[in-house]
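hiii, so i know i said id send this last week but things got crazy w the move. better late than never?? heres the sequnce for the chain we talked about at the cafe, plus the structure i predicted for it. fair warning i was half asleep when i ran it
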Amino acid sequence: MKQQTDGDRLRHAMRRVPSPVTVVTAVGAGERRGITIGSFASVSLDPPLVSFNVGKDAQMHPVIEAADHFNVHVLTDTQGYLCNHFALPDTTPAQQFENVSFRLDAQGTPVLDAVLTVFFCKKYALYDAGDHTLVVGEVLRIEEAPEGQPILYFDRSYRSVGEEVRSSLFAPVKRASNDVP
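okay and structure toks below
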């Protein structure tokens, strides 16, 4: 008998999958907001697209729906406080940026200071995804810090990247079934 998976089971299992931690900032619906995101991913290289998910009940949801642009900030392993700060529910837009060092880009969107990488994006598409919206952005520009390590989320805590894992050498994989070895 096949057991149906529910949201709690999925949440528990996903705790075993390390994910990058980013903060997305946007201006829309008359306010400036930021949100901690653990679902950031590359989607396409041509055009350069990235994605993340926003809960439909999040204060950021109407902002990201209305925004034309947004910025995705990859945080360093010393910025766990920013992860927690932008994850707090029920904060006002002003409270979100109190005591946070940032500047505004040409679109008036906050750019957090001293982060590892910033992806400056134009909204490409929004897709309904159950209780979330999948946001796809076209990357217009990237700023990268010269050094630093990213912060990850794993097993309900923030982590840094560990040592490189050595792998065995394998024979090259065939690119298509009709390739001759």
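btw The two ends are 42 Å apart (CA to CA). thought thatd interest u
miss u guys!!
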